[in-house]
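Protein in question kept underneath.
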Amino acid sequence: MKHFISLENLDLEIIKDLVNDAVSFKKRNAFPNLSNHYISNLFFENSTRTKLSFEMAEKKTGIEIIYFDAESSSVKKGETLYDTVKTLSSIGVECFVIRHSQDRFYENLISQIDVPIINAGDGCGDHPTQSLLDLVTIQEEFGSFKDLNVVIVGDIVHSRVAHSDAKILKRLGANISFATPKFWQDTTMNMGTYTSLDEVISESDVVMLLRNQNERHTQHYDEKNFLSQYGLTKERASKMKSGAIIMHPAPINRNVEIDEDLIESPQSRIFTQMTNGVYARIAVLNYVFNS
Protein backbone atom coordinates (compact mmCIF):
# COMPACT_ATOMS: atom_id res chain seq x y z
CA MET A 1 0.00 0.00 0.00
CA LYS A 2 1.38 3.41 -1.02
CA HIS A 3 0.42 6.66 0.66
CA PHE A 4 1.21 9.99 -0.98
CA ILE A 5 1.54 12.44 1.89
CA SER A 6 4.77 14.32 1.23
CA LEU A 7 7.58 14.44 -1.30
CA GLU A 8 10.07 14.45 1.58
CA ASN A 9 9.64 10.73 2.23
CA LEU A 10 10.04 9.73 -1.43
CA ASP A 11 13.30 8.87 -3.17
CA LEU A 12 14.33 11.34 -5.85
CA GLU A 13 14.11 8.62 -8.49
CA ILE A 14 10.45 8.02 -7.63
CA ILE A 15 9.75 11.75 -7.87
CA LYS A 16 11.51 11.98 -11.22
CA ASP A 17 9.52 8.98 -12.46
CA LEU A 18 6.27 10.68 -11.40
CA VAL A 19 7.26 13.87 -13.25
CA ASN A 20 8.18 11.91 -16.37
CA ASP A 21 4.95 9.90 -16.18
CA ALA A 22 2.90 13.09 -16.00
CA VAL A 23 4.74 14.58 -18.98
CA SER A 24 4.17 11.36 -20.93
CA PHE A 25 0.45 11.20 -20.12
CA LYS A 26 0.10 14.78 -21.34
CA LYS A 27 2.06 14.24 -24.57
CA ARG A 28 0.35 10.97 -25.50
CA ASN A 29 -3.10 11.86 -24.18
CA ALA A 30 -3.23 8.25 -22.96
CA PHE A 31 -3.85 7.24 -19.37
CA PRO A 32 -3.63 4.16 -17.12
CA ASN A 33 -6.85 2.19 -16.70
CA LEU A 34 -7.81 2.32 -13.02
CA SER A 35 -11.45 1.31 -13.43
CA ASN A 36 -13.02 -0.85 -10.73
CA HIS A 37 -11.33 1.25 -8.04
CA TYR A 38 -13.30 3.48 -5.66
CA ILE A 39 -12.06 6.79 -4.28
CA SER A 40 -13.44 9.59 -2.12
CA ASN A 41 -12.26 13.21 -2.09
CA LEU A 42 -12.57 14.59 1.44
CA PHE A 43 -12.11 18.36 1.32
CA PHE A 44 -12.54 20.14 4.65
CA GLU A 45 -11.23 23.41 3.22
CA ASN A 46 -12.44 25.23 0.14
CA SER A 47 -10.80 24.28 -3.13
CA THR A 48 -11.34 24.73 -6.85
CA ARG A 49 -8.19 23.66 -8.72
CA THR A 50 -7.02 20.80 -6.50
CA LYS A 51 -10.43 19.25 -5.94
CA LEU A 52 -11.64 19.47 -9.52
CA SER A 53 -8.35 18.46 -11.11
CA PHE A 54 -8.36 15.35 -8.89
CA GLU A 55 -11.89 14.63 -10.10
CA MET A 56 -10.79 15.09 -13.72
CA ALA A 57 -7.79 12.82 -13.17
CA GLU A 58 -10.03 10.22 -11.58
CA LYS A 59 -12.51 10.34 -14.45
CA LYS A 60 -9.77 10.13 -17.10
CA THR A 61 -8.47 6.94 -15.45
CA GLY A 62 -11.90 5.39 -14.94
CA ILE A 63 -11.94 5.54 -11.15
CA GLU A 64 -15.37 5.54 -9.51
CA ILE A 65 -15.82 8.59 -7.27
CA ILE A 66 -17.81 8.23 -4.05
CA TYR A 67 -18.82 11.85 -3.50
CA PHE A 68 -18.44 13.46 -0.08
CA ASP A 69 -19.58 16.89 1.07
CA ALA A 70 -18.31 17.92 4.49
CA GLU A 71 -21.10 20.48 4.89
CA SER A 72 -23.84 17.85 4.60
CA SER A 73 -21.99 14.99 6.31
CA SER A 74 -21.91 13.68 9.87
CA VAL A 75 -18.86 15.90 10.43
CA LYS A 76 -21.47 18.52 11.29
CA LYS A 77 -22.65 16.20 14.07
CA GLY A 78 -19.16 15.94 15.52
CA GLU A 79 -17.82 12.93 13.64
CA THR A 80 -14.02 12.78 13.67
CA LEU A 81 -11.84 12.54 10.57
CA TYR A 82 -10.84 9.02 11.60
CA ASP A 83 -14.46 7.91 11.94
CA THR A 84 -15.37 9.44 8.57
CA VAL A 85 -12.51 7.64 6.82
CA LYS A 86 -13.20 4.39 8.70
CA THR A 87 -16.88 4.56 7.74
CA LEU A 88 -16.18 5.12 4.04
CA SER A 89 -13.49 2.46 3.90
CA SER A 90 -15.94 0.05 5.54
CA ILE A 91 -18.37 0.51 2.65
CA GLY A 92 -15.68 -0.05 0.03
CA VAL A 93 -13.75 3.17 -0.61
CA GLU A 94 -10.18 2.14 -1.49
CA CYS A 95 -8.34 5.47 -1.39
CA PHE A 96 -8.84 8.93 0.10
CA VAL A 97 -7.77 12.34 -1.21
CA ILE A 98 -7.89 14.62 1.84
CA ARG A 99 -7.46 18.36 2.39
CA HIS A 100 -7.62 19.44 6.02
CA SER A 101 -6.80 22.55 8.05
CA GLN A 102 -4.79 20.52 10.59
CA ASP A 103 -1.06 20.22 9.95
CA ARG A 104 -0.04 16.58 9.43
CA PHE A 105 -3.61 15.35 9.78
CA TYR A 106 -2.53 12.08 8.19
CA GLU A 107 -0.19 10.94 10.98
CA ASN A 108 -2.85 9.15 13.00
CA LEU A 109 -4.75 7.95 9.94
CA ILE A 110 -1.91 6.09 8.25
CA SER A 111 -1.24 4.06 11.38
CA GLN A 112 -4.90 3.08 11.81
CA ILE A 113 -6.44 2.93 8.31
CA ASP A 114 -5.50 0.18 5.87
CA VAL A 115 -6.14 2.21 2.70
CA PRO A 116 -3.96 4.76 0.86
CA ILE A 117 -4.13 8.44 1.82
CA ILE A 118 -3.27 11.19 -0.68
CA ASN A 119 -2.51 14.53 0.94
CA ALA A 120 -4.29 17.34 -0.93
CA GLY A 121 -3.01 19.95 1.52
CA ASP A 122 -2.53 19.92 5.29
CA GLY A 123 -2.84 23.24 7.10
CA CYS A 124 0.33 25.28 6.60
CA GLY A 125 2.34 22.09 6.10
CA ASP A 126 2.55 20.30 2.75
CA HIS A 127 0.91 20.28 -0.66
CA PRO A 128 2.75 17.48 -2.48
CA THR A 129 0.57 17.26 -5.60
CA GLN A 130 0.91 21.02 -6.15
CA SER A 131 4.67 20.60 -5.86
CA LEU A 132 4.55 17.76 -8.36
CA LEU A 133 2.63 19.79 -10.94
CA ASP A 134 5.08 22.65 -10.39
CA LEU A 135 7.95 20.25 -11.10
CA VAL A 136 6.18 19.09 -14.26
CA THR A 137 5.81 22.72 -15.40
CA ILE A 138 9.48 23.52 -14.71
CA GLN A 139 10.65 20.28 -16.35
CA GLU A 140 8.67 21.08 -19.51
CA GLU A 141 10.24 24.53 -19.62
CA PHE A 142 13.88 23.86 -18.73
CA GLY A 143 14.38 20.09 -18.97
CA SER A 144 16.23 20.04 -15.65
CA PHE A 145 16.22 21.57 -12.17
CA LYS A 146 19.94 21.69 -11.45
CA ASP A 147 21.33 25.20 -10.94
CA LEU A 148 18.04 26.93 -11.76
CA ASN A 149 17.49 30.11 -9.76
CA VAL A 150 14.03 30.04 -8.16
CA VAL A 151 12.64 32.87 -6.07
CA ILE A 152 9.55 32.18 -3.97
CA VAL A 153 7.66 35.39 -3.29
CA GLY A 154 5.04 36.37 -0.72
CA ASP A 155 3.27 34.74 2.20
CA ILE A 156 5.95 32.17 3.04
CA VAL A 157 4.97 31.36 6.61
CA HIS A 158 1.40 30.32 5.79
CA SER A 159 2.09 28.61 2.46
CA ARG A 160 2.19 24.82 2.18
CA VAL A 161 3.22 25.37 -1.45
CA ALA A 162 6.32 27.28 -0.36
CA HIS A 163 7.26 24.60 2.15
CA SER A 164 6.79 21.72 -0.30
CA ASP A 165 8.36 23.38 -3.35
CA ALA A 166 11.42 24.78 -1.59
CA LYS A 167 12.33 21.41 -0.10
CA ILE A 168 12.00 19.37 -3.27
CA LEU A 169 13.57 21.95 -5.58
CA LYS A 170 16.56 22.18 -3.25
CA ARG A 171 16.91 18.38 -3.31
CA LEU A 172 16.80 18.48 -7.11
CA GLY A 173 19.67 20.99 -7.28
CA ALA A 174 17.93 24.35 -7.72
CA ASN A 175 19.08 27.52 -5.97
CA ILE A 176 16.30 28.87 -3.74
CA SER A 177 15.68 32.37 -2.43
CA PHE A 178 12.71 33.85 -0.60
CA ALA A 179 11.32 37.36 -1.03
CA THR A 180 8.79 38.32 1.63
CA PRO A 181 8.07 40.95 4.27
CA LYS A 182 9.76 40.20 7.60
CA PHE A 183 6.42 39.43 9.24
CA TRP A 184 5.90 36.50 6.80
CA GLN A 185 9.35 34.99 7.06
CA ASP A 186 9.58 31.42 8.35
CA THR A 187 12.72 30.80 10.36
CA THR A 188 12.39 27.03 9.85
CA MET A 189 12.87 27.46 6.09
CA ASN A 190 16.63 27.01 5.89
CA MET A 191 16.94 25.75 2.32
CA GLY A 192 17.30 29.23 0.85
CA THR A 193 18.22 32.82 1.59
CA TYR A 194 15.87 35.71 2.35
CA THR A 195 16.23 38.70 0.07
CA SER A 196 14.12 41.25 -1.80
CA LEU A 197 12.53 40.60 -5.16
CA ASP A 198 14.29 43.62 -6.61
CA GLU A 199 17.68 42.08 -5.77
CA VAL A 200 17.09 38.74 -7.50
CA ILE A 201 14.49 39.40 -10.23
CA SER A 202 17.05 39.81 -13.04
CA GLU A 203 18.83 36.54 -12.21
CA SER A 204 15.81 34.32 -11.53
CA ASP A 205 14.70 31.59 -13.91
CA VAL A 206 11.46 31.01 -12.02
CA VAL A 207 9.49 33.68 -10.16
CA MET A 208 7.08 31.70 -8.02
CA LEU A 209 4.42 33.88 -6.44
CA LEU A 210 2.20 32.85 -3.52
CA ARG A 211 -1.31 33.82 -2.55
CA ASN A 212 -1.59 36.13 0.46
CA GLN A 213 -3.61 33.84 2.73
CA ASN A 214 -5.76 36.40 4.47
CA GLU A 215 -7.88 33.73 6.15
CA ARG A 216 -4.82 32.58 8.15
CA HIS A 217 -3.50 36.00 9.15
CA THR A 218 -3.58 37.21 12.74
CA GLN A 219 -2.17 40.65 12.03
CA HIS A 220 -3.07 43.39 9.56
CA TYR A 221 -0.85 44.24 6.61
CA ASP A 222 -1.02 47.01 4.03
CA GLU A 223 -2.79 45.15 1.20
CA LYS A 224 -3.32 48.32 -0.80
CA ASN A 225 0.41 48.92 -1.20
CA PHE A 226 1.59 45.30 -1.12
CA LEU A 227 2.01 45.03 -4.89
CA SER A 228 4.25 48.07 -5.19
CA GLN A 229 6.33 47.10 -2.16
CA TYR A 230 6.66 43.34 -2.52
CA GLY A 231 4.71 41.95 -5.50
CA LEU A 232 5.39 41.37 -9.18
CA THR A 233 4.67 44.68 -10.88
CA LYS A 234 5.07 45.26 -14.60
CA GLU A 235 8.18 47.31 -13.84
CA ARG A 236 9.78 44.42 -11.94
CA ALA A 237 8.69 41.90 -14.58
CA SER A 238 10.41 44.00 -17.26
CA LYS A 239 13.72 43.17 -15.54
CA MET A 240 13.21 39.40 -15.80
CA LYS A 241 15.73 37.68 -18.03
CA SER A 242 14.72 36.17 -21.35
CA GLY A 243 13.28 32.70 -20.85
CA ALA A 244 12.33 33.21 -17.21
CA ILE A 245 8.80 32.20 -16.22
CA ILE A 246 6.14 33.35 -13.77
CA MET A 247 4.29 30.81 -11.62
CA HIS A 248 1.48 31.03 -9.05
CA PRO A 249 -0.49 28.19 -7.42
CA ALA A 250 -3.72 30.25 -7.50
CA PRO A 251 -6.26 31.45 -6.61
CA ILE A 252 -4.78 34.83 -7.37
CA ASN A 253 -5.40 38.07 -5.53
CA ARG A 254 -5.24 40.21 -8.65
CA ASN A 255 -3.19 43.37 -8.27
CA VAL A 256 -2.02 42.26 -4.83
CA GLU A 257 0.63 39.60 -5.46
CA ILE A 258 0.84 40.27 -9.19
CA ASP A 259 -0.25 42.92 -11.63
CA GLU A 260 -3.21 41.37 -13.41
CA ASP A 261 -1.75 42.26 -16.82
CA LEU A 262 1.01 39.72 -16.14
CA ILE A 263 -1.28 36.78 -15.32
CA GLU A 264 -1.68 35.77 -18.97
CA SER A 265 1.50 37.37 -20.27
CA PRO A 266 3.91 35.40 -22.50
CA GLN A 267 6.13 34.59 -19.50
CA SER A 268 3.27 33.36 -17.33
CA ARG A 269 2.77 29.62 -16.83
CA ILE A 270 -0.06 30.00 -14.32
CA PHE A 271 -2.75 28.33 -16.42
CA THR A 272 -0.23 25.78 -17.71
CA GLN A 273 0.26 24.78 -14.08
CA MET A 274 -3.47 24.15 -13.79
CA THR A 275 -3.42 21.98 -16.92
CA ASN A 276 -0.43 20.06 -15.60
CA GLY A 277 -2.23 19.47 -12.32
CA VAL A 278 -4.49 16.91 -13.99
CA TYR A 279 -1.56 14.92 -15.41
CA ALA A 280 0.46 15.13 -12.19
CA ARG A 281 -2.50 13.76 -10.25
CA ILE A 282 -3.01 10.97 -12.77
CA ALA A 283 0.62 10.03 -12.11
CA VAL A 284 -0.04 10.02 -8.34
CA LEU A 285 -3.18 7.89 -8.68
CA ASN A 286 -1.29 5.42 -10.86
CA TYR A 287 1.51 5.30 -8.27
CA VAL A 288 -0.87 4.71 -5.39
CA PHE A 289 -2.89 1.97 -7.07
CA ASN A 290 -0.22 0.23 -9.14
CA SER A 291 3.09 0.52 -7.27
In short: The longest helix spans residues 270-290. The mean pLDDT is 94. Strands lie at 38-43, 64-65, 95-100, 117-122, 149-153, 175-179, 193-195, 206-209, 245-247. The CA atoms of residues 91 and 124 lie 31 Å apart.
